[in-house]
Amino acid sequence: MRELMLLAETAGVSAVGVVTQVRRKPHQGTYVGKGKLEELRAEVLRHGADLVIFNNELSPTQQRNLVNVLECKILDRTEIILDIFGSHAHTREGKLQVELARLSYELPRLTGRGKMMSRIGGGSGGSAGGAGTRGPGEPQLATDRRHVERHLRLLRAELAEIATRRNTERAARRKAGVPVIALVGYTNAGKSTLLNALAGSEEASVNDRLFETLDPTVRRVRMADNFAVLLSDTVGFIQDLPHSLVAAFRATLEEVTQADLLIHVVDAADRYAEAQFEAVIKVLAEIGADKIPAVVALNKWDVAEDDPEAHHLLVSLPEALPISALTGYNLEELKMAVTEALSKRLTPATMHLPYSKLDVLQSVRARGHVLNEDYRPDYVFVEAELDEEMLGRLKPYITAEE
Length: 402
What we know:
alpha/beta, six-stranded mixed β-sheet, Rossmann fold, single chain, four-stranded antiparallel β-sheet
């Protein structure tokens, strides 16, 4: 419920009350029981509330019945997240993905929306207009089902083209041999701040609000020993991330699944950091990225260092590294941890490189870790650690000499 309050605040909603109910399972017709529904209606009237947000996904029937009883706008958890995504999407791809997610969610809810349709209003983004009154997909909600399905097909086709382009870009990065590291973590854990700190720039948008970053940002960064990597920042995770969003953002999330290493950023200053850590692990498993090696960074340690809960978290995650992306605390140690983790994917090799192939040596330096160079009369003797692909390319020059 605390998280739902943060979502509402990010969407520009001022909460005036919280209502909870203990039930074995949600009521089939109205989600909450009859008595609780009457209590909720009384609270809506007492506060003059014009919006009620439910912390789970509502069925079309539940939503319709709740509107009839409460006579106000009704949003569920998925809709409030879609609303936030709609206001934070700036690129063409981001807007397409949000529109796809929204229409996929709204399609089964088009029939018999009745009063719910009245919640669609103006507004072109930002917090103005309040939750549920904006978003790239909303103009289609008033059209018939066939038109929406046709629009969904067009969206999927356009996103498929973008996914193809992304795959081509990834293939080019693979060929260049620069390792790819993805920043992952709970939304608002400080991933964009960490990207800016490591890259020495302010290009990634940083704001203290949920889901600030929707579109992937990739920067070339030097780790320890001048080791070059590509660092990717993408959408933050949250508990029970709606499946429609996971599906719509599949191409974006592949930036995570195709990474060589993850930096899992945890907000150590948040009292629910451990639960957030587990939520991210769950989402990583859902998208098939749970087997990728990861370095855990306990961010905001400048705020959390005196908090017993943060030190308990450090005991729970003994390999985690306390850092502060804001102050720079332990960032050099983080770079060393990343370089060490990446070196585990490399295999030692010795080579005789002809002087006519010195351009290959540049690739070795960029892709691997050079341990020794000895310039001999007919060739350069090189000892290095290389990834599997580079080993295959350099097979003609590899020797057993030590």
